[in-house]
Amino acid sequence: MFIEIMDTTLRDGEQTMGVSFSPVEKETIARMLLDEVGVDRIEVASARVSTGEFEAVRRITSYASRKGNLDKVEILAFIDGTASIDWIAEAGGRVANLLTKGSLRHVREQLRKEPEEHLRDIKRSIHYARSKEMMVNLYLEDWSNGMINSPAYVFFLMDGLQDEPIERFMLPDTLGILNPYQTARFIRQVREQYPKLHLDFHAHNDYDMATGNVLAAIREGVNGVHTTVNGLGERAGNVPLASVAVLLNDHLQAEHNLDESQLTRISKIVETFSGIRIPSNQPIVGENVFTQTCGVHADGDKKNNLYYNDLLPERFGRSRQYALGKTSGKANILKNLEEMGIDLDPESTRKITERVIELGDKKEQITKEDLPYIIADVLNSNNQLHEPVKILNYTLTLSSGLKPIANISIEIHGEVHKENAAGDGQYDAFMRALWKIYDKLNIEHPMLTDYIVTIPPGGQTDALVRANISWKYQDHEFKTHGLDADQTEAAIKATEKMLNIVENIRQMQKA
Phi first, then psi: what are they for 12, rounded to 5°? Predict the structure, then answer.
């Protein structure tokens, strides 16, 4: 059983509120989906939307033509005479996904037409597209409601179109209303009626059943499914690409062309371009999904991986983590100390565990990089924590109409360095001054990979702000955080921690 994957992140996914990809971003995502992730087809735009959309499609079709992938690039077209097809042809497209009405209510109330008239209009659009040497797929919009409320109309339409030159009949649960039992029954009815047609299923997630519906649809004989990266899409979104990939591998053992090792990378790229953050508990790609929090689980992992399942993080280019907090217990502490190469006696480990639990009770967020600081504090063992970098003082100026300016003074291994710089914001100015110092000392910069500021809901203007910053230095990826009533000062505290981590890495490499 081979399942074809059509990803519609660049069309249906872009209907997520607040999401608009630039032409360059669209081309980048298209290239990654086809060349690296291995989806079979991509839907990249709706015809006649905007000048920017036309430019994006031109870039993608130009790339796809050079790579011999033009038949894998699809564009949504409307039953509007010749306008959509002409737009697609001018943009260099070769595949039109015609949007037709899959429920009687939509035909009569939205189009104000009778089924016979709509069928004639569809056939005219198909024949015109074929005259332009264009392949045609057919969306039956609101198909799920059609099967619930007007199945005779659905079969009337498909009966009238089954002999037309249509590559795929695409069956959408447009409003995300189906459950897996309904999906299975409706797909079975269509498959039994039309055994030779290529059927695609298009799932929305309004009732949080999209993945289950895809499972049901595949088991009842669809040939392909539609996805979006990170489940982007209108309202509650579409079925996520990553969820479908592991469903195919682990529950259906179906053949497909997806490379699951690329799922994390495409997920992060789309997160960056869309501005829509991935929930930390999002299956497969969420930040926390391979993190054990409970100490019992960490202990079980140590004893022959008792709490592992088949979703091993290494499949997706990730690694298992062990969280630190009030439920972590000694096993989580030991796992993190082991990763950092720190060896403590049992009594010291007990004291560190007690402090971590105490901080967790206060809702403190604790990272692996915090452990040396906790050790130094609890055991009064400053020799175990080397802090070669200290931010001595700084001034930040902000004036209307002028760029912010930072003057900073830092100490590195006892030597004081001063610098100043302007930036696009106060923290940017601070970092520019800092990197001037590091450039003079010929020290490699770490890369800031993520920056999150959190404020308590309903917080006052003097509420404590937490800055969580992710960094990459050579092969090391880590996070630091700072807490302060001022957002910039919280970020600077997190940055000072980063500087010491980097400097300790540099010293270990020299040793």
Answer: -70, -40
CA distance 104 to 233: 25
Q: Are 284 and 246 in contact (CB under 8 A)?
A: yes
Alpha-carbon span 273 to 262, nearest angstrom: 17
CA distances from 281 to 14, 19, 165 (A): 22, 21, 44
Angle at 163 between CA 159 and CA 169, to 5 degrees: 70
Distance CA 331, CA 461 (A): 39
For residue 355, the tally of other CB atoms under 10 A from its CB is: 17
Assess whether pLDDT exceeds 60 at residue 402.
yes
Which residues carry out catalysis? 11, 141
> What are the strands of the beta sheet with 465-473, ordered from one edge?
447-454, 465-473, 476-484
pLDDT for the residue 216: 98
Q: Is the pTM of this model over 0.85?
A: no
Q: Which helix (DSSP H) or strand (DSSP E) does residue 76 occupy?
A: strand 73-78
The 10 Å CB-count burial string (b at 16+, else e) for 82-96 is eebbbbbbebbbbbb
Closest Cα partner for 435 from 443, 424, 427?
A: 443
Q: How far apart are the first and last CA of the chain?
A: 56
Residue 412: C-alpha distances to residues 385, 389, 396, 416 (Å): 15, 5, 21, 7
Q: Where are the alpha helices (DSSP H) in 11-50?
A: 23-31
Choose from 315-319, 447-451, 474-478 the range with maximum mean pLDDT.
447-451
For residues 109 and 305, which has the higher predicted lDDT (pLDDT)?
109
Reference 87, options 107, 113, 61, 119; nearest CA is 61
Q: Count H helices, E strands: the chain?
A: 17, 16
CA distance 138 to 171: 9
Closest to 232 in 3D by CA, of 183, 281, 282, 280: 282
Contact in structure between 187 and 222 (CB atoms under 8 Å): yes
Q: Could you give the CA distance from residue 415 to residue 406 in angstroms, rounded to a whole number?
A: 20
Burial of 248 (0-12, 13-18, 19+ CB in 10 A): buried
472 to each of 281, 466, 469, 479, 484, how far by Cα in Å? 23, 20, 10, 9, 24
R_g of the chain computed on alpha carbons: 28
Q: List, in order of start, the domains of the chain with CATH numbers.
A: 4-274 (3.20.20.70), 291-384 (no CATH), 389-510 (3.30.160.270)
Contact assessment for residue 72 and residue 6, using Cβ atoms and an 8 Å cutoff: no
Which residue carries 């498959």 as its tokens? 191
